[in-house]
Amino acid sequence: MHGNVLEWCQDIWHDNYNRAPNDCSAWETGSSATKVLRGGCWGNNSWSCRSAMRYDLNADYFDDNVGFRIVSSVSVVSAYPS
């Protein structure tokens, strides 16, 4: 869901995707002091409410339009016997 708040990502900011991990892991190496924010928030224009929109801010930045999403892996239990 986009449009609620900008979401912090685990990745360190890089200007491009050259030498980015190709295994879907977070890109945590680099010399940048800033982190990646994705998506858009209620205060942005509609064209910025998409996951491809990236911003960079210092990791200690906070505001009412910046948040994060908690991700957890869980076991899938089927209601139907196999």
Give an overview of the whole structure.
- The protein is 0% helix and 23% strand.
- By secondary structure, the chain is mainly beta.
- It has one domain (6-67).
- It has a 4-stranded mixed β-sheet, with no helix packed on it.
- The mean pLDDT is 83.
Topology readout:
Elements (H helix, E strand, L loop, with lengths): L5 E7 L21 E5 L15 E5 L7 E2 L15
Parallel strand pairs: 1-4
Antiparallel strand pairs: 1-2, 2-3
Label this structure with key terms.
4-stranded mixed sheet; 82 residues; mainly beta; 23% strand; extended; 0% helix
Task: Tell me the radius of gyration.
Answer: 16 Å
Shape verdict: extended
Please give the oligomerization state of what you see: single chain
Which secondary-structure class do the elements indicate? mainly beta
Distance, first to last CA? 33 Å
* Mean pLDDT reading: 83
Sheet having the most strands? 4 strands, mixed
- Estimate percent helicity: under 10%
Number of helices: 0
Uncertain stretches = none
How much strand? 15-25%
The H/E string reads EEEE
Strand elements, count = 4
Sequence of strands across the biggest β-sheet: 3-2-1-4
Query: How many distinct domains?
Result: 1
